[in-house]
Amino acid sequence: IDGSHLPYEENVALTKKVCDYAHQYDVTVEGELGVLAGVEDEVSSDHHTYTDPEEVIDFATRTGVDSLAISIGTSHGAYKFKPEQCTRDANGRLVPPPLAFNVLDAVMEKLPSFPIVLHGSSSVPQEYVEEINEYGGKLPDAIGIPEEELRKAAKSAVCKINIDSDSRLAMTAAVRKVLATKLAEFDPRKYLGPARDEMEKLYKHKIVAVLGSNGKAE
To answer: Does residue 172 have a pLDDT over 50?
Structure first.
């Protein structure tokens, strides 16, 4: 339940209401504290507000949440940072600002061993962005969270990292390539099949090389 767009006390009340109901049926609840920039479903913001570590004990205790999504500089969508927020490398590519690991560390100090979640953490792989643009798309200056920072986060109390935009980019790139290079193709199986394969490739890479969750389901 995302009440992060609400005033603090309203967020607490809404999250507690959901927890009280869900826990009757052994359903776990993830709350959210701190605001992420970008758009997700009906919730949007043009700026982010870091989670205040001083609030997390009160929030977790009063609501009864099972995990907590925090804001440390991640953002929803494929445009996580404006160009002016970034620097550029030797090849002219945007380099995003680093995540606020000091906030994550402070939260973990306040809530030892508590499950932490990061939303808006897609890396926006540049190979997909370039392929989309090559085959008729328009994603200028799309930039995400570096995978090495996500790997660092995954080694901490962070137990879930949301990467939805990456799968959208992988699928869109594959579909665009087929439709642009095989103009007579009209069978959805012929362009959705490669898209599915590309998404599978992406997920395997994330599980093994980024999230460190390979083999954890055994």
So the answer is: yes
The pLDDT score that the predictor gives to residue 48 is 61
Give the pLDDT confidence score for residue 58 in this predicted structure: 97
Domain ranges for the chain, please list them: 8-125+133-163
DSSP string, the chain: ---TTS-HHHHHHHHHHHHHHHGGGT---EEEESB-BEEETTEEESS-B---HHHHHHHHHHH--SEEEE-SS-BSSSB-S-GGG-EE-TTS-EEPPPP-HHHHHHHHHHSTT--EEE-S-----HHHHHHHHHTT---TT-B---HHHHHHHHTTTEEEE--HHHHHHHHHHHHHHHHHH-TT---HHHHHHHHHHHHHHHHHHIIIIIS--TTTT-
The two tokens of residue 172 are 């869109």
Percent of the chain with pLDDT over 90: 78
| Bridge partner residues of 163 (DSSP) | none
**Domain formed by 8-125+133-163, architecture:** Alpha-Beta Barrel (3.20)
Is the pLDDT at 45 greater than 50? The verdict is no
Say what the pLDDT of residue 90 is.
Answer: 86
